[in-house]
Design brief:
Blueprint (H helix, E strand, L loop, with lengths): L3 E7 L8 H14 L4 E13 L7 E3 L9 H13 L6 E3 L6 E3 L4 E3 L3 E10 L7 H11 L3 E7 L1
Helix pairs in contact: 1-3
This protein binds zinc ion.
Length: 148
């Protein structure tokens, strides 16, 4: 059976969260859920937090057209060259300017400067547990599930 890695990131890709707050959230999660392990990841600029092999389709959040993977790959390469400090792109479908973070990834993906990674949680992370993390982070979160 493959491993499941659930990543909790702040909703804002540019938001930095201090090590002590990340540790507090990790301790809270360790008490709340059963899993193999919990790790903290940080970087000094936003990183792409992916859903592993589960990214099947991407849609425009404005006009809901399906976005071509080749176009997206080029846009990602360009943003990566600037360390993802600028995520805005002009979409090919409707010409709107949207953050790469706000495209509709199926399954969800995102960008962040930090993540709490939960390896093989036994159950789904429930709403109360996520609310506790939101409270510790003092911001909204995004949950990304990857199969390894
Ligand atoms: Zn569009």
């Amino acid at each position: 059976m493959s491993d499941r890695l659930v990543k909790i990131i702040p909703a804002n890709p540019y938001m930095a969260i201090s090590d002590s707050i990340l540790r507090e959230a990790k301790d809270d999660l360790q008490n709340a859920i059963q899993c193999d392990s919990i790790a903290i990841q940080t970087s000094d600029h936003p990183a792409f937090v992916d859903c592993g092999g589960s990214l099947e389709r991407i849609f425009c959040p404005v006009c809901h057209s399906e976005i071509d993977f080749e176009w997206w790959g080029t846009a990602m390469d360009r943003a990566y060259e600037e360390a993802f400090r600028k995520l805005d792109v002009v979409l090919p479908c409707c010409g709107e300017t949207v953050s790469l973070n706000d495209l509709q990834y199926d399954f969800p993906c995102g960008f962040s400067t930090c993540a709490i990674e939960i390896l093989n949680p036994i159950a789904q992370i429930d709403a109360a547990t996520l609310d506790a993390v939101k409270e510790i982070f003092r911001t909204g979160v995004r949950v990304i599930c990857a199969r390894l």
